[in-house]
From TrEMBL:
It comes from the Bacteria. The chain crosses the membrane at residues 9-30, 42-63, 83-108, 128-149, 156-177, 197-214, 221-240, 260-282, 294-311, 331-349. InterPro entries: Acyl_transf_3_dom, Acyltransferase_3. This is Acyltransferase. Residues 11-348 form the Acyltransferase domain. Pfam families: Acyl_transf_3 (PF01757). Keywords: Acyltransferase, Membrane, Transferase, Transmembrane, Transmembrane helix. GO terms for molecular function: acyltransferase activity.
Amino acid sequence: MTDHRPTPYVYGLDLVRFLCTLMVCAFHLTWHNPQMVSTMPFGWIGVQIFFVISGVVIANSAARATPLQFLRSRFLRLYPAAWLAAIVNFGLLLAVPVATFGAVGVWVDPSLKGLAFSLALLGNTFLTSAYWTLPIELAFYALILLSIVGGGARRFVAVARLLVVASLPYVVFLFAATRSAGALGWFDFGYGPKNMLLLRHGIYFATGMYFWLLNSRHRLAGIDWLLLALALAGAGLEIHTRAAQIVSSYAVGAHGPLSIGFLVAGALAIFAACTCAIFVALRHAQAWVPPARLATLVRTLGLVTYPFYLLHEILGGFMLHAGLSRGLPHAAALALAMAAVGVVAWLIARHGEPVLRRAIGNAFGGNKASARAGVKF
């Protein structure tokens, strides 16, 4: 029987994750501004890469965990940061006119319903659009939890196979329908709760799981190599579909509207580079251990990633608007916004989350869950 051992800490994943967060932030803060639309038009691909990384780290954190240990580690990694970020986000929405965010192209929902769903990480409306990925993550966690209950890491191959077999036909259908401009009806999941079926994004989680399996003393069967190849091919179709669905939402820049071909080529290149980096980082996890100070810095960047992602639209949008309204050049205003998000995200990761985690642990009998049990992105 294959011994599925957890992989040593993979510092390279933190770097890829942080880079993707910066890309997503730059994209959301620039794609509706004609003067900034070309800054990072492919940044949305960071979300798909997040899902690949989740496939890796969640499989790794669950490899030797009991169901209760897995639930506790996931809850303490996901919710404390989300609650703290929601407080910051909602506070800004109460203090700043909604038009401020609309001026920089950031969608917000300052309602109590949006706050409630942003605290629960479930629902069909949130304080801002970035939260749409979190119900998808929760659905993947639930699938992994079922596999732990049903047999542990031995079941991970079956989970990866299921994700590809279920997801690929939907992605092919979606790609074909988008190319033909056909009406999708119920099959158009958009950014809503139907994505929790994992039909659109399952190929990304499966890719990450296969990467982890390949680096945890597991030899893939021929069918799994085929399914991995199909998952990567399906990722290409999904990326093309996403570009086709959002291209008309971009601002028209100085050189006219962006083309689908341009967006697809850039997004595919970034996705290929990052997935290769993920696999190589896994393969060399034991050898590529940085010196202590650098390791601490890299680990901090990884921990900052999640609150940064949750804060970047509202806090970043507010700071971007403030910079632009005071006459800062676009690049300087964007840098100011991202720096401000980084500082607040660091405060949450370094000071807020540990305190809240300890309080929750004490409330439930003093059980401790390490932040190193697995990371969200």
